[in-house]
């Protein structure tokens, strides 16, 4: 039975709907503010993210604060039954701040300081910037703590892992290293294997993160930037938490990006939120894109133990990203909005509410166009989402029951993209690999938690660990114990190769005891060009009902069985006959090892067999047509199945029971046709 969680803010137990709202851009024409209120009622919006880039309107000169306009907006929202997801303004700094205190601007690797401009580019160490943020955040919190419109704190905007090479950051980095290496420079030198190319450090002061060749150092720099960003966030959150302890605090993650370790960050926020910008109709394969976004939604849900997250930003129609910037086709807006809810979001929010008249994002999709009225397709489709969400109160707080865990780990990704890339080249493809292993579950309507190496494995029936190249402390033991206790796991090529410092394990791969658990020794691997492939031949009686042959691409490893059973072998190249898929009985469980990057058809058949053998729960007990996704959320009072057709064509389904559609309240026919990009929310 999936768990039920409290609403994001229990004072409003409904799905939040709204968007980034910048009334400060329209201060010269306050009649626009009244029009905003009329329109947000029409669009079914109830939660507006206010003040994200408003610092220069809130504090036009140092120490001179102007809250009048925000008071008016907060009151107007409350008068119209809507709420504020109230932002702190640190995402972009006013010019006076950069001019008076140049240290707030980041420094490039060559020592030059960045000019004022852009956004998301402040030094995360600068005591002045921290102090200025603390002051304005405290003012915001003390002014609006009692305001009925205050619902959630939106701290800053899209913190990122960009470098700042200023002396303040370097000093903080060295301090962080001293803690990590217990003040022992020799320990650090060993971890970095720094005698290679004579890079041994003889004093802490000489350490600077500019040498991409010292992989351990660069990994630590990435870790430091995450730690320092979290520390910065905590500084920002401190006055908010002190003055408004009951208001949840979040900051919008960019889960698709690899620059910050969001797993570490998630521990610091009350609720996870993220900004989702799929490239619909751009890649030639909306189904693959839908699976990619589903995986990202699942990370956001998994990051706080299954607790519903917030879709903080999405675009009503045209994005700034993408090659040709396709508008969403009719139906896609409701579909992609409900996809987030299906995977655990309790909100659908946009960038942006109203198009700005000038600057970077004046053409970016918005609920309200420059035309200024509600008679646009974009507005109508947003209003349709508003009506749909209003019918989903029962889903708020519902959890997802996942028996499968996919391990996608940020630190491992950093290591793969630095250390392993030197030899694996373009074939690293870590995120694509994770997606390929996720896709069969998405196709089958089986829920997946996407976890990192720090998470518990105990609750899962199947753990999928593609390319766990770098083992973080404790993961190998945890995986071994999980299998021993009866769990099933799959690990692939390029796993358990290095430790947390990117130092290679000695004594054979997979290292750290996993060689015994999986019963294999991986001697070497070969990399391939895109036009090359190696045949994989299934062994007879492989127990998976897989027959014939498949293809492996990009990378294949030469593996020696050490007590395992060989289920498939490579049938090409110089290592023909060596194992491609093995299984080892370890304790009460099963440890599968995949030695080459197998094509989708192989993974589909392999995971189908696992779903069957482990009797994994599916959202709905029917075969789903290609491109149709089913995801379930529920609690002890009900189960809600989101049926989503990502095809630009109708899809026919035969249902297994009698359902009603929550979106219409009507009964659903047993023989059902989902419209192109059609969505339904079934309830028994
Ligand atoms: C990001 C930012 C927004 C906006 C959107 C759209 O997610 O947070 O301010 O720039 O992208 O491009
Ligand atoms: Zn700095």
Task: Tell me what you see in this structure.
The structure is a single chain. This protein has 684 residues and is α/β, with parallel strands linked by helices. The protein folds into three domains: 16-183 and 226-395, TIM Barrel, CATH 3.20.20; 404-613, Class I glutamine amidotransferase (GATase) domain (Rossmann fold); 628-683, Immunoglobulin-like. Helices cover 31% and strands 20% of the residues. Strands 10, 11, 12, 13, 14, 15, 16, 17, 18, 19 and 20 form an eleven-stranded mixed sheet that branches. Helix 5 packs parallel to helix 8. The mean pLDDT is 97.
Shape: globular
Low-confidence stretches: none
The CATH class assignment of the largest domain is Alpha Beta
- Domain module count: 3
The number of distinct β-strands equals 27
Q: Provide the CATH superfamily of the largest domain.
A: Glycosidases
* Rounded Rg: 26 Å
Quick synopsis:
This protein has 684 residues and is α/β, with parallel strands linked by helices. Helix content is 31%, strand content 20%.
């Amino acid at each position: 039975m999936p768990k039920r969680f409290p609403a994001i803010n229990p004072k409003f137990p409904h799905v939040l709907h709204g968007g980034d709202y910048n009334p400060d851009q329209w201060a010269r024409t306050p009649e626009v503010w009244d029009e905003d209120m009329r329109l947000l009622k029409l669009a079914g919006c109830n939660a507006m993210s206010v003040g994200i880039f408003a610092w220069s309107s809130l504090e036009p000169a140092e120490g001179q604060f102007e809250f009048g306009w925000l008071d008016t907006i907060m009151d107007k929202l409350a008068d119209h039954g809507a709420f504020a997801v109230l932002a702190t303004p640190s995402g972009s700094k006013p010019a006076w701040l950069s001019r008076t205190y140049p240290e707030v601007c980041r420094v490039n690797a060559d020592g030059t300081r960045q000019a004022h401009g852009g956004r998301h580019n402040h030094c995360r160490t600068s005591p002045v910037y921290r102090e200025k943020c603390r002051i304005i955040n405290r003012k915001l919190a003390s002014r609006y703590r009692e305001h009925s419109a205050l619902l959630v704190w939106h701290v800053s905007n899209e913190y990122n892992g960009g470098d700042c090479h200023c002396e303040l950051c370097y000093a903080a980095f060295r301090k962080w290293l001293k803690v990590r290496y217990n003040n022992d420079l020799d320990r650090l030198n060993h971890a970095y294997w720094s005698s290679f190319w004579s890079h041994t450090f003889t004093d802490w002061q000489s350490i600077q993160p500019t040498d991409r060749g010292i992989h351990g150092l660069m990994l630590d720099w990435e870790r430091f930037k995450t730690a320092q960003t979290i520390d910065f966030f905590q500084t920002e959150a401190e006055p908010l938490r002190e003055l408004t302890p009951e208001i949840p605090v979040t900051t919008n993650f960019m889960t698709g990006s690899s620059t910050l370790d969001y797993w570490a960050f998630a521990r610091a926020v009350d609720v996870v939120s993220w900004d989702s910008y799929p490239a619909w109709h751009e890649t030639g394969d909306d189904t693959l894109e839908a699976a990619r976004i589903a995986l990202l939604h699942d990370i956001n849900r998994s990051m706080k133990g299954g607790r519903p997250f917030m879709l903080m930003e999405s675009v009503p129609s045209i994005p700034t990203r993408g090659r040709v910037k396709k508008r969403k086709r009719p139906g896609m807006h409701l579909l992609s909005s409900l996809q987030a809810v299906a995977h655990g979001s309790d909100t659908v929010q946009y960038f942006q509410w109203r198009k700005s008249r000038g600057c970077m994002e004046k053409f970016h999709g918005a609920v309200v166009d420059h035309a200024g009225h509600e008679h646009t397709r974009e507005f109508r489709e947003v209003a349709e989402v508003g009506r749909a969400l209003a019918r989903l109160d029962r889903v708020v707080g519902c959890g997802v029951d996942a028996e499968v865990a996919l391990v996608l780990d940020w630190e491992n990704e950093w290591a793969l993209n630095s250390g392993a890339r030197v030899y694996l080249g373009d074939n690293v493809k870590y995120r694509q690999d994770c997606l390929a292993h996720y896709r069969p579950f998405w196709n089958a309507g089986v829920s997946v938690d996407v976890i990192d190496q720090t998470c518990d494995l105990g609750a899962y029936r199947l753990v999928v660990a593609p390319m766990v190249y770098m083992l973080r402390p404790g993961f190998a033991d945890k995986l071994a114990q999980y299998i021993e206790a009866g769990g099933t796991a799959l690990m692939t090529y390029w796993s358990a190769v290095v430790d947390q410092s990117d130092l290679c394990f000695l004594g054979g791969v997979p290292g750290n005891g996993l060689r015994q658990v999986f019963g294999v020794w991986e001697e070497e691997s070969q990399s391939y060009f895109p036009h090359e492939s190696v045949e994989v031949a299934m062994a007879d009686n492989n127990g998976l009902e897989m027959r014939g042959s498949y293809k492996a691409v990009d990378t294949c490893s030469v593996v020696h069985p050490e007590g395992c059973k060989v289920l498939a072998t490579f049938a090409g190249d110089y290592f023909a006959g060596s194992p491609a898929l093995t299984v080892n009985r370890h304790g009460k469980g099963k440890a599968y090892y995949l030695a080459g990057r197998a094509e989708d058809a192989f993974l589909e058949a392999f995971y189908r067999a696992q779903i069957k053998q482990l009797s994994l729960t599916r959202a709905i007990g029917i075969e789903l047509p290609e491109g149709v996704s089913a995801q379930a959320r529920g609690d002890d009072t009900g189960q809600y199945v989101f049926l989503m057709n990502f095809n630009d064509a109708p899809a026919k389904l035969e249902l297994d029971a009698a359902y009603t559609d929550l979106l219409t309240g009507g009964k659903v026919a047993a023989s059902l046709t989902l419209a192109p990009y059609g969505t339904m929310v079934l309830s028994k």
